[in-house]
Design brief:
Elements: E1 2-6, H1 32-41, E2 44-51, H2 53-56, H3 62-78, E3 85-89, H4 105-114, E4 122-125, H5 128-137, E5 140-144, H6 149-157, E6 166-167, H7 170-181
Helix pairs in contact: 1-7
Length: about 180
Amino acid sequence: MKTVVLDRDGVINEDTHAYVKTPGEWIPIPGSLEAIANLNSAGYRVVVASNQSGLGRGLFDGQALAKIHHKLCSMVEKAGGFIDGVFFCPHLPTDGCGCRKPATGMLSQIENEFSCSLRDCFLVGDSYKDIQAALTFGLRPILVRTGKGSATEQRLLISKNRGVPVVDSLAMAVKDVILQADE
């Protein structure tokens, strides 16, 4: 089964510098939930891989994060789709863990959980860390301009990664890049 890996904040839902700490603060980006349903309809497994250092910073606890992810999954289901798995790194950037993007530990965890290879699968993100993780692990990155994406796009322009597709939103990534690759 083909897999698409999605970052959460700034890709599926609105991002905030104050962190998404409660289900009430989790607000989907218009079209993102339907885009996930479209991926499911096209036969894709959809997984979320998200850095959640707010957990390590003590801004919210595991129970609050579980409620946020429950809201995410419930809203995707109401839109006619589903999330196959949610993976997250709770560590601070200074912890030096192997799971926080741009490290690839979460991607290895996804492969192990689903007994699959992510090589040449798509990863949709809004940050340079997402793009780096995808390229390091052999995935095909797509940058969305939502969240931190516009700032990341400027960074891509001055880096060696100019071949990364850049689109306005997850909905556009699905319609204009991922589903087009199937044709």
